[in-house]
Amino acid sequence: MKTVLKKEQMKINNITVFGAGIWGSVIAQHLAKKNYQVRLWEYNEQLLNVLRTMGRHPNIPNFKIHDNIRLTGNVAEAVQGADMLVFVISSKAIRTFCREQLKPLLNGKVLPVVSASKGIEDKSFKTICEIIEEELPQLKDQVLAFSGPSFALEVAQNVPTKIMLAGKNTALVQEIAAVFDADPIIMVPATDRRGVEYGGAIKNVLAIGAGVIDGIGDGANTKAALITQALQEMACVLVSQGGQAQTVYSLAGFGDAILTCMSAISRNRRLGEKLGAGLSLAEAQKEVGTIAEGVNSVQSVYDIARKNNLKTPIIDAIWQIVCQGQQPHALLQAMGFVNRGNK
């Protein structure tokens, strides 16, 4: 019989972060500065060797790895003695990683888990937290969603940032929020985990669309109109999947969407910009370099909209461009500019 951790029983000292990309490394650094002992796991041996050799992250300016961070490429070493796990790996890898790597190592152990990975699984439409709980059932109600308008590079530069932490166990949410809560981050507790996760996944899809408008070369008028219409579609999809209406207007909904759609450093927006300029998806992904999670979510968000018979012309057009190779002007036509791209 599993032992459920109560607030007064829990003592967190050792934290494992899965994924030493930009966001994973910044989260690990933030926790290390709070004097937690952090094990930062990375599967990419080339990146791991660079981090070990340089003591810095190649994609984060002026970033020296904290002394409280221990780098590893070994999952067993990473989880040994861990009091909490933080996922910051590709959404596509989560299920297999939990099933094949973590399940035998945890062997039924119960501990809090935070997911900073964003995405919706194809066909099942499950969120990342739901996938983790399904593969590691002893963690039911122990998995929390970490989402909000938070560019990793800005957090690394000490820019004030608010992030939502959502879970079904309110006492656990409060306690884990305190683990992260420290300048420059303020944590905002929430209970609508599903809504928060859907907001985090959908906004990446919408950001690709905003980038397409930038790549086509149209101006701020067009982009503002696109974002307005796209946010209405986000609300329809999120609520259709059991998310609460107020979550749409939260940091994990509109807040994150506005940031990702508008900023020049957004990976998803930059990928859309490449597509809007006429590049293929493969070419755009190569030029952006780092993972743009919106690509992994486009099919799922589109399928949800179709399954529920939702009116989502913007999402439909983004799907056509990303998944079907349609010309970028399809997005303008979906907005009602029917003569664009026909000449």
Shape: globular
End-to-end distance: 68 Å
The number of strands is: 8
Rg, rounded, reads 20 Å
In the CATH hierarchy, the third-tier topology of the largest domain is known as: Rossmann fold
CATH top level assignment of the largest domain:
Alpha Beta
Structural class: alpha/beta
Listing every helix as H and every strand as E from the N terminus to the C terminus, the arrangement reads EHEHEHEHEHEHEHEHHHHHHHHH
Question: What percent of residues are in strands?
Answer: 5-15%
Q: Strand order across the biggest sheet? A: 3-2-1-4-5-6-7-8
What is the tally of helical segments? 16
Largest sheet: 8 strands, mixed
Q: Could you explain how this protein is built, in words?
A:
The protein is of the alpha/beta class. The chain folds into two domains: 185 residues, Rossmann fold (3-Layer(aba) Sandwich); 136 residues, Orthogonal Bundle (N-(1-d-carboxylethyl)-l-norvaline Dehydrogenase, domain 2), CATH 1.10.1040. It contains 16 helices and eight strands. An eight-stranded mixed sheet has the order 3-2-1-4-5-6-7-8, sandwiched between helices. Helix 14 packs across helix 15. The radius of gyration is 20 Å and the shape is globular. The relative contact order is 0.11. The N terminus is likely disordered.
